[in-house]
Amino acid sequence: MDDFELDERKIRILNAIIRNYLETGEPVGSRTISKYTDLNLSSATIRNEMADLEELGYILQPHTSAGRIPSDKGYRFYVDHLMEEKNREVAEMKQFVIEHTERVDQVLQQVAKMLANNTNYATMVTAPSYHQNKVKFIQLSHVDAEQVLAVIVTEGNLVKNKIIPVSEPIDNETMLKLNILLNSSLNGLALQEINLATIARLKEQAGIHSDIISNVLDTVAETMGPDEDIRVYTSGTTNFLKYPELSDSEKASELISTFEEKQQLVSLVTEHLSEENTGIQVYIGDESPIQTMRDCSVVTVAYELGEGVRGTIGIVGPKRMDYEMVMDNLKVLKKSLDGMLDRPRGKT
Amino acid sequence: MDDFELDERKIRILNAIIRNYLETGEPVGSRTISKYTDLNLSSATIRNEMADLEELGYILQPHTSAGRIPSDKGYRFYVDHLMEEKNREVAEMKQFVIEHTERVDQVLQQVAKMLANNTNYATMVTAPSYHQNKVKFIQLSHVDAEQVLAVIVTEGNLVKNKIIPVSEPIDNETMLKLNILLNSSLNGLALQEINLATIARLKEQAGIHSDIISNVLDTVAETMGPDEDIRVYTSGTTNFLKYPELSDSEKASELISTFEEKQQLVSLVTEHLSEENTGIQVYIGDESPIQTMRDCSVVTVAYELGEGVRGTIGIVGPKRMDYEMVMDNLKVLKKSLDGMLDRPRGKT
DNA sequence: TATTAGCACTCGTTTCTATGGAGTGCTAAC
DNA sequence: GTTAGCACTCCATAGAAACGAGTGCTAATA
User: Fold this and answer.
1) Do both A146 and A161 map to the same domain?
2) Which of A190, A348, B61, B326 is most deeply packed, by most CB within 10 A?
3) How far, in Å, are A17, A194, B252 from residue A205 at the CA level?
4) Considering the entire predicted model, what is its pTM?
5) C-alpha dihedral, A329 to A331 to A333 to A336, nearest 10°
6) What stretch of H or E contains B59?
7) In the structure, how many helices (H) and strands (E) does chain A have?
């Protein structure tokens, strides 16, 4: 345990303050600490130490003559140095989810819901983005005289389709040619590898049907492109109403709205997607990129369903959050999801 | 205006009470009515009439010595007989939405959001269900050695795909045969028309690949089957917090949760889907099928994007709701959406 | 007979005050 | 360096008081 500005005793006192505050939610006074710890110090001594801790910015007083509560800096110190790994039981749930649901989106929605039930905080799960993914194959088919269906499948087995209007009917032979052209040119390529040269060549070879190519390429970009449109599953947003420090109408409303406008949540997640960051990420108060969450803490972790198929699980609650419990839950879920696509599964 | 138990004067007084209550949200007293109307009656007379109205169940007193507020029966009478159509301006918005978004789901999400902004109530939009719809075509393609992709397109241009695992590779010729088999047997059929006989014949002809046929049929059922999995777009759920009669933590939490668990909302909508009910549907208080909404009113209307492609727009707010404004909004949006698929559109 | 004025009464809302208690900071003693 | 003691601050709570909106009823009036 590193101690530049805090000696052993201050750390123990800080620890005691935070743990007590996490439990009770009430500002904690010197007398409480005097007993709660085995330091055998009088409340007066504790008071002196507390004054120091306050000056150092680890704790603060809501008002004169109230006890102390942890500051953001205090929470940060706690999370970084003081917290113990408990690895408590969060067991039975994991199998349950994964057995009983077939489609990935259902699994993720379930995960969000369960996590919310388990923790009593608001939760979010982002659908995996297939960022570094490659085109597996493309299929154009007739729908009717004026419409063509384009289906794109990526290495991650993500399927996307788009109906493309055409000015005049396309005969079977042309369709076959277009299919061959698209597949021979694009299969195996990642988004980054499809450059202007490729596109130009494609269009040239497609002749009068180059507009279809454009449309297909748009869809490809949409399918594999960066995160602009990450799906986000949320649950337990009404949990905000349970915590007095968040439940005032104004704040709660903002928070719940943020969860409703799911896209805003994506910014909590970029950290995980870009980097090789597989650990648990914690934002405390103003550390969070989302302004409305300045009174919250956010804990996230990345999962990886399969090679390069990554998403994030996250939780948002009051700063006074049971960090250990939350982290244990996240770890367990991460473990359940990691490699899910590679493992053999029951149905489908 | 029919009057079995209410004479002209009582109706006018009831009307005045309700309108006033809708505006102010406060229980309304006899003196207020005595001036608000042009009846030129003293407050004492009004009081007598009010006592009658209360006995008849149209209004009630929150407590002795408070004014009166409308009962469910009162609201119902108001909605059925007293309300005037205002057809106020709700104009500019409609084009905006439809121009600026391409995909149907985005449009619907936008509609929900706009409606919430416009009305300050919680809103829901159900994605159209293609109930009476027919198969347009089916396409099987190779994904890799162990997987086949099935794409199903319906008359409503709904596209659904599913990846089907196969025990051993399927050669091109077989695939072609299966495609022809499926399309020649199923195209143009509605779900109800695909009966056991058809299925048996299909499987027989498919021989060793009959398991693929099963899988495809499952997907067909899923695509066109009844509403079990209607998508619901919601917005403005935090608006519940704005109305004192709903914003107590318990109630608001239940309501917002109901909107989060979108599936529950489907029951508000069945009315529209089964019947040929194109009008506006109003549930007041306990009339609603959803228990948590006993203190709310619900107003819904069906839209029809194209032949048989129907969904619902709905709004949930306090019973003290501006019904006229809400209905106007719904009407305008319905009009914008109706027939949207048939109309030529800008992009896509 | 229908309407109205008047009055006593009810009950929720707001404001103010008093009281208690938890907790602090400081000082002086150990 | 630690502790006991004390004065002080400030929030939370409860009660009391004052207020006011509104009612129901009765008796007078048109």
Assistant:
1) yes
2) B326
3) 72, 16, 60
4) 0.84
5) -140
6) strand B59-60
7) 12, 10
The CATH number of whichever domain residue A68 belongs to comes to: 1.10.10.10
Rounded-to-integer distance, Cα A348 and Cα B219, Å: 11
| B235 interaction partners in chain A (CB closer than 8 Å) | 260
Q: Is A235 on the interface with B (CB under 8 A)?
A: yes
Both tokens of residue B170? 């399927």
Dig out the tokens for B185 from the structure. 């047997």
What pLDDT was estimated at residue A347?
35
Task: Specify whether B221 is located in the same domain as B268.
Answer: no
Residue B303 CA to residue B331 CA, distance in Å, equals: 9
Q: Are B137 and B243 in contact (CB under 8 A)?
A: no
- Per 3-state DSSP, chain B is made up of helix, strand and coil in percentages (nearest 5) of 50, 20, 30
In chain B, which stretches have pLDDT less than 50?
1, 100-101, 344-348
* A120 and A201 co-located in one domain: no
B129 inside 8 A of chain A by CB: no
Between the CA of residue B16 and those of B75, B245, B319, what are the distances in Å? 12, 21, 16
Tokens linked to A64? 């004169």
Chain B residues within an 8 Å CB radius of A348: 162-163, 165
Q: Is the CB of A87 within 7 Å of strand D?
A: no
A239 and A201 in one domain?
A: no
For residue A240, which of A319, A312, A302 has the smallest C-alpha distance?
A: A319
> How much of chain A is in helix, strand and coil states, percent to nearest 5?
50, 20, 30
DSSP state of B195: -
pLDDT in the model for residue B165: 84
Could you tell me the CATH number of the domain that includes residue B146? 3.30.390
Give the residue from chain B lying closest to A212, CA to CA. Answer: B348
pLDDT for res B91? 53
The tokens for B22 are 């809708």
Mean pLDDT by groups of 10 residues along chain A of 348 residues: 77 96 94 90 96 96 94 97 74 52 78 95 89 80 86 80 84 90 88 85 87 83 66 95 90 96 89 73 96 96 84 96 95 88 49
Residues A124 and A232 in one domain: yes
Q: Is residue B342 part of a domain?
A: no
Helices A210-224 and A196-206: angle between axes, nearest 10 degrees: 140
CA-to-C1' distance for A65 and D12, Å?
13
Q: b vs e for B240-253, b when ≥16 Cβ sit within 10 Å of the residue's Cβ?
A: bbbbeebbeeebbb
**Does residue B343 fall inside a structural domain?**
no
Structural domains of chain B, count? 3
Q: Is residue A88 part of a domain?
A: no
3-state SS string over A149-184?
EEEEEECCCCEEEEEEECCCCCCHHHHHHHHHHHHH
Place of tokens 């090679």: A307
Domain containing B101: what range? 93-129+230-337
CB B269 within 8 A of CB B313: no
Same domain, B124 and B142: no
Structure tokens at B39: 């009846």
Give A-chain residues touching B345 at CB under 8 angstroms.
Answer: none
Query: Three-class SS of residue B246?
Result: coil
CB A219 within 8 A of CB A152: yes
Specify the residue for token string 């306050």: A54
Nucleotide nearest B50 (Cα, C1'): D23
Task: State the residue for tokens 């406060």.
Answer: B26
Sheet bearing B159-165, strands edge to edge: B135-144, B147-154, B159-165
B88 within a domain of the structure (yes/no): no
Task: Return the structure tokens found at B125.
Answer: 């939009």
